[in-house]
């Protein structure tokens, strides 16, 4: 009986992380486009005047755009927007629409021939939910920019999280993932925020309790398989290349490109605390880190990086707690008691 209790965990309702948004960092806007014909979409994080940025790709199945540009040794250090999209590699087309929007708004890196918008992007695989021939395209990216606003951000089954699912191992029944956001505000005026689209192989776990929030379920749907315990018992195989968790962390603390790269690296600690397993061969896990640099107070890099990881964990929990079910993929709110 002890072995059975360790392997299977009954769902239960947990307190939601405190509300906060990546847009609490002044000047940042977020816009979603959700495809009404099937669950997919894209999300844009906008800062038209240019934010110093870094990136860290940890998963082995990434789909990305302009990540090489963000290496500390390369020339351009600021981005005008970051795109998170469903649609697998097809979804990278959404960044073309974001570039068009930014060009129309005279934003970009100055060159002799005019400004060139800098728009890194990352995608997740959601072609298994609904009609996989319907994917975010350039028009979707443009519409996400048109929808971009400061203030509260819609979460759950919208934008890049519309077709996201979690807990995908052989024999397990997956659940609905989504997109979530969070922020941490400090007394000295620093703000650290995150937005994450959660579409992972692994289970989503509350770091404070160790309890599974969403993930692979038993055949009867009444309990969680517990992927790690399944692996320990010699069972469980991840779905190859059909996953990926992607996101952006943001702050107003003033850092350079190298330091923002370190913050992107540290932010993955938050992913590892809230998703188990993560950074697998079947995930393309990618986190961008941007700063508006508007604070005039000297910031501690270690502290901001650690808080960025906390914000990522909170955003991941909110993503699955706010998600709504689609046929075949129940949500947290459907099964939690």
Describe the 3D structure.
The structure is a single chain. With 337 residues, the chain is an alpha+beta fold. It has a single domain (2-9, 18-327), classed as L-amino peptidase D-ALA esterase/amidase (4-Layer Sandwich). It is built from seven helices and 16 strands. Helix 2 crosses helix 3 (138-146) and helix 5 (257-274) packs across helix 6. The longest helix is centred in the last third of the chain and has 21 residues, at 301-321. The radius of gyration is 19 Å and the shape is globular. The two termini are 23 Å apart. The relative contact order is 0.22.
The SSE string, one letter per element, is HEEEEHEEEHEEEEEEHEHEEHH
Q: Which fold name corresponds to the CATH topology?
A: L-amino peptidase D-ALA esterase/amidase
Overall number of strands = 16
Oligomer: single chain
Overall structural class, as computed from helix and strand content, comes to: alpha+beta
Name the overall outline: globular
Low-confidence stretches: 1-6
CATH architecture: 4-Layer Sandwich
Q: Mean pLDDT, nearest integer?
A: 92
Provide a count of the helices: 7
What's the CATH superfamily, by name?
Answer: L-amino peptidase D-ALA esterase/amidase
Number of domains: 1
Helix content: 10-25%
């Amino acid at each position: 009986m002890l072995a059975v209790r360790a392997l299977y965990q009954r769902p239960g309702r947990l307190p939601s992380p405190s509300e906060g948004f990546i847009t609490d960092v002044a000047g940042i806007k977020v816009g979603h486009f959700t495809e009404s014909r099937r669950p997919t979409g894209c999300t844009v994080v906008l800062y038209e005047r240019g934010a110093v940025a870094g990136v860290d790709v940890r998963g082995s199945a990434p789909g990305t755009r302009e990540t090489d540009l963000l290496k500390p040794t390369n020339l351009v250090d600021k981005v005008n927007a970051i795109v998170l999209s469903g649609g697998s590699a097809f979804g990278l087309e959404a960044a073309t629409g974001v570039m068009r929007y930014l060009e129309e708004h005279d934003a970009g890196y100055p060159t002799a021939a005019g400004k060139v918008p800098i728009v890194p992007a990352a995608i997740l695989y959601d072609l298994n939910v609904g009609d996989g021939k319907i994917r975010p395209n350039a028009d979707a990216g443009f519409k996400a920019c048109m929808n971009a606003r400061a203030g509260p951000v819609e979460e759950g089954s919208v934008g890049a999280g519309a077709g996201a699912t979690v807990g995908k191992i052989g024999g397990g029944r997956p659940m609905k993932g989504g997109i979530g956001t969070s922020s941490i505000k400090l007394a000295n005026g620093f703000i650290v925020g995150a937005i994450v689209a959660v579409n992972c192989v692994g289970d989503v776990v509350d770091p404070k309790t160790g309890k599974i929030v969403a993930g692979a379920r038993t055949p009867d749907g009444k309990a969680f398989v517990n992927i790690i315990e399944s692996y320990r018992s010699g069972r469980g195989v991840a779905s190859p290349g059909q996953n990926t968790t992607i996101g952006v962390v943001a702050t107003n603390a003033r850092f350079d490109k190298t330091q923002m790269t370190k913050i992107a690296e540290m932010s993955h600690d938050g992913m590892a605390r809230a998703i188990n397993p993560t950074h697998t061969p079947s995930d393309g896990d990618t986190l961008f880190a941007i700063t508006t640099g508007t604070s005039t107070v000297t910031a501690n890099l270690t502290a901001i990086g650690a808080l960025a990881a906390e914000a990522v964990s909170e955003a991941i929990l909110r993503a699955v707690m706010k998600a709504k079910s689609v046929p075949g993929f129940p949500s947290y709110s459907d099964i939690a008691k």
